[in-house]
Amino acid sequence: MKYCEKCGNELLDEAVICPKCGCAVRYEKPQRAGESFARINVCALVGFILSLVSVISVFNVLGFLAIAGFVNSVIGLVNCTKKKQRGKGFAIAGIVVGVIFGVIGFFAWIKFISGGGTWLSLLILWLV
User: Fold this and answer.
1) Is 59 buried (19+), middle (13-18) or exposed (0-12) by CB count in 10 A?
2) 86 beta partners
3) What is the enclosing helix (H) or strand (E) of 72?
């Protein structure tokens, strides 16, 4: 059952006008299953995945995957806030993981360039 917004009279579900006061009844479109949920932001999800892959990937030796994950996560977080989309948790996790492993990759690369090790030591430093 629904009620008139003006006079509070009880109305039938299919009523268009209130029989008591003549006020037009607002039509509420029925929601389909899943329609109330906002879409998840793709940048936030991609950023999280890139950051996560940087944790388990040998290819993150320079920190590039972590940096790419960080950048995508920041863009995703901004878009989630502006467009009221889901995915803020993915974006925040991608930012945190991206920063941590980006810094680790950067320092591992600096140590390698300064002659402090071989590719193997660079890999071991990154894994620690």
Assistant:
1) exposed
2) 40
3) helix 64-83
